Amino acid sequence: MKATAKCLLERDDITDRLGEIKCPAIILHGTADTAISMERAEALRAGLAGADTIIPIEGAAHASNLTHAQLVNPPLLEFLRRVTK
């Protein structure tokens, strides 16, 4: 577990390179996420040209796809349908 935490804490910050990413993106953010703040999610959205909104997942913490699939899957499916036409 220590190695995993160390890896996450020491990974490269690519915030200044987000503008280079041109593909469509979806940002889903749990409203109870204490690992990544809403401000950080907003910075991600602002930096990614292909992300036009943040989809809040009400009551979800980090990894909301595992705990709140019923809220995550519908917008994710709609996004995938839209970008794969």
TrEMBL record:
InterPro entries: AB_hydrolase_fold. This is Unannotated protein. It comes from freshwater metagenome.
